[in-house]
Amino acid sequence: MLYQQLADRLQSLIQDDVFEVGTRLPGVRQLSQQHEVSVSTAVSACRELEQRGLIEARPRSGYFVRQPPALREPPRSVKGSQKPRLVTGQDRVLRLVQAVNDPDVVNLGAAVPSADFLPVAIMERSFHHVLRTQRRRCMGYEFPPGAPELRHQVARRMAGYQCPVAPDDVLITNSCQEAMAIALKLLTQPGDTVALESPTYYGLLQVVESLGLKALEIPTDPVHGISLDALDLALERWNVAACVLVTNFSNPLGVCMTDERKQALLRCLSKHRVPLVEDDIYGDLPFNGRRPAPVKRWDTEGLVYYCSSSSKTLSAGMRVGWLIPGTRPGRSQDAPDTTVEKARYLQFINTVSVGTPSQLALAHFLQHGHYERWLRQAANDYARAVARMTDRITQLFPAESRVSRPAGGFVLWVELPDSTDTLELMEQALDVGVSFAPGAMFSASGKFSNCLRLNCAVRWDGKLERALAALSRLL
C-alpha cells in the first residue's frame, strides 16, 4: 500500500542517519508535498513508523526519531533427552487453542494469524469463482490424492524450489499436521522412537503421543538450529525410526538452517538410513525476501517426506495441506509407488477427503499468480509485527529476559528468569484475558518451564497493549 511504501522510504532515511535519533521528522503536510502523496497517506505512514518502534509522537510537537531498543540476548539452548520417552500431557493444548475463539481473550498463544494478515478479499473471490463455475463438483468428495488442479500447482511450486516432483506424488491433506501424522504412520510402529528438535512444535508432540511413539529430544540452538553433532551421536546410540524437523523458520525459535547445514543434515540421516519428515509450513515467510530451499531439494534417495500447507499464509480455516512422500527423483511414473499408494489410503481412512471448495479455491488462487504477490506483502507484515512485539517485550518484560531473533514466520520465543513457572502464569493470564503458549508444552520432558511463545500476527490496538501490560504485571 502507498503509506507502507512511504514508511519504508522514511525508514531507510532513519537507518541511514539522514534523520538522527532525537530529531523531528518533517510535518505531515510537508511530507505529503515532498513525496507527492495525500496528507492522510503521510499520517498513515507516520503511524506505521510509530508501530515499528522507529518514531514517537510528542504532544503538539510532531514525530521524533526514537532511540531503538537494545536487543535482548537470544535464549539459551539446553541439553536434549538422555533417552527416548513417551509423550504425555498434551491434552492441555486444547484449552490454549480454544482461547482463539474467545472474543474476550487476546490470542498470543496459538500460532494462528489474525484475519488482518490474510488475503480475505482475494480468497473470497476465488471461492466465489469455483462455487459459480464448479458448483456441482463442490458438492461432492474429492477423494485422495486430491484435486488434480491443486496437485499440479503444488508440483509447480516445488519445481521452483528445485524439487522436481510429479503431481501424482502429491497428496492433499487436511492441514500440515495431518500430513506429518500420515508420514509418521508410514514410517513407524507404536513404541518406535523419533528424533525431534528441542524445543519443538507442540502439535508434533500431540501427533507423537497419539501414535504411541517415543520422543528423543535433540538440543537446538536459537541461532543455528538443531545440533548436528548431538543428532549424529543420538542416531549412533538409539534405534531411531524417523527424524522430524522444521528446517525453515522453526517453531518456536524461528531458526532457518543454512543450505550447508541442510545438506550436512541429509548426509547424517543418509549415513544412518533415517528418513526425515520435513515440516516447511513457514518457508514462504522469510524476512529478508529470499525463500529458503527445503531439504527436499537435495534428496536423491527418497529419504525426505515433505509436509506443508497454506494455513500460515492464506487461511487456517481452509484446512488444506499436502504431503510428498519420500520418492526417488526421476523414477518411472509408469510404475506405481507403494509408499504413495499407502499414503493415499491412510488419508482416506483418516478423514475420507479434504474439502472440495477449499482445494479448488486454493488451486485457482495459485494458478492466477496471486500467491507470489501476496507473499511479498505478508512477509513484510509479519516482519513488522515481530519487530513491534520484540520492542514492546524489551520495554515491558524483566530485564534478564532473553528473546529469540526469528529470521521468518511470526512467533517469538522468550526465556524468562529461572524462577518463573509459565504453566502457572498461563492460568493467571487467561483470567485477565490474554493467552500465550507456556514453554513446557514444547518439550516431551517438560523442559523450558521458564519460557513462553508469543504469536505476533495479531491486530495491534489498545486491547493488545492492555494485554501486554497485564502480562507484564503478572511477571
What is shown here, in short?
By secondary structure, this protein is α/β, with parallel strands linked by helices. It is built from 16 helices and 17 strands.
Task: Write a structural description.
By secondary structure, the protein is α/β, with parallel strands linked by helices. The chain folds into three domains: 2-65, Winged helix-like DNA-binding domain superfamily/Winged helix DNA-binding domain (Arc Repressor Mutant, subunit A, Orthogonal Bundle), CATH 1.10.10.10; 87-116 and 384-474, Aspartate Aminotransferase, domain 1, CATH 3.90.1150.10; 120-371, 3-Layer(aba) Sandwich (Aspartate Aminotransferase, domain 2), CATH 3.40.640. 41% of the residues lie in helices and 14% in strands. It is built from 16 helices and 17 strands. Strands 3, 5, 6, 7, 8, 9, 10, 11 and 12 form a nine-stranded mixed β-sheet that branches. A four-stranded antiparallel β-sheet has the order 13-14-17-16, with helices on one face. A two-stranded antiparallel ribbon has the order 1-2. A hairpin with a 7-residue loop joins strand 13 (402-403) and strand 14 (411-415). Helix 2 crosses helix 3. The longest helix is centred in the last third of the chain and has 27 residues, at 370-396. Mean pLDDT is 89; it is low at 331-336.
